């Protein structure tokens, strides 16, 4: 070997990468519909299916597609229950009160026997679960039907007002 002169040998091979496209598994079965109840206002849920990568792309091969598909769905079958809805309910308005608007000086005078004029009424609000089919029925009742209150976070929309102005008619001899 030492007698050989150092010459560059011709290149008889070259490394290369054979391009391979991404290969994925077959799609899984569709998942159950995300919606398990019926609602006329938002009838659809969604369902999904997935696949996994069997072969990553190599050497400029075709990239992998999305590994999840989603599509809208609605609950199927008989006996699908209606979705729970949540509503604000209120107590009845309190009686009109003028004394809460009087200042401390008027209260010390004890002049509360003939209170009249502008006053204020108050009420409380709470959130209840209401079945959609019950809503039209409840709205036709004169009395407010109340169900068991739930966490106020369940209700959406603006909260009902808790105070309103009212008027107590003053007798003719009363001066405001």
Structure, described:
- The chain has 176 residues and is mainly beta.
- It contains two helices and nine strands, in the order E-E-E-E-E-H-E-E-H-E-E.
- Strands 5-7-8 form a three-stranded antiparallel β-sheet. Strands 1-3 form a two-stranded antiparallel sheet.
- It is elongated.
- The N and C termini lie far apart (126 Å).
- Residues 142-146 have low confidence and may be disordered.
Number of helices: 2
Helix content: under 10%
Weakly predicted, low-confidence segments: 142-146
Average of per-residue pLDDT values? 78
Distance between the termini: 126 Å
Strand order of the largest sheet: 5-7-8
Computed CA radius of gyration, to the nearest angstrom = 38 Å
Q: How many beta strands in the DSSP annotation? A: 9
- From the spread of the alpha carbons, the general shape counts as elongated
Taking the sheet with the most strands, its summary is: 3 strands, antiparallel
Q: Return the string of H and E elements.
A: EEEEEHEEHEE
Q: Strand content of the residues, in percent?
A: 25-35%
Class by helix and strand content?
Answer: mainly beta
């Amino acid at each position: 070997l030492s007698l050989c002169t150092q010459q560059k040998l011709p290149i008889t091979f070259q490394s290369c990468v054979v391009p391979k496209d991404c290969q994925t598994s077959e799609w899984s079965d569709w998942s159950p519909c995300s919606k398990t109840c019926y609602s006329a206002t938002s009838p659809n849920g969604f369902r999904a299916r997935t696949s996994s990568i069997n072969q990553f792309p190599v050497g400029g091969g075709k990239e992998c597609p999305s590994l999840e598909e989603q599509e809208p769905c609605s609950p199927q079958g008989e006996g699908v229950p209606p979705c729970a809805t949540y509503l604000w309910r209120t107590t009845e308005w309190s009686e009109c009160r003028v004394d809460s608007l009087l200042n401390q000086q008027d209260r010390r005078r004890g002049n509360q026997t003939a209170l009249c004029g502008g006053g204020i009424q108050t009420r409380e609000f709470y959130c209840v679960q209401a079945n959609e089919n019950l809503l039209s029925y409840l709205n036709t009742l004169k009395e407010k039907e109340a169900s068991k209150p739930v966490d106020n976070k369940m209700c959406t929309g603006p909260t009902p007002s808790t105070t309103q102005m009212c008027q107590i008619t003053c007798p003719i001899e009363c001066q405001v």
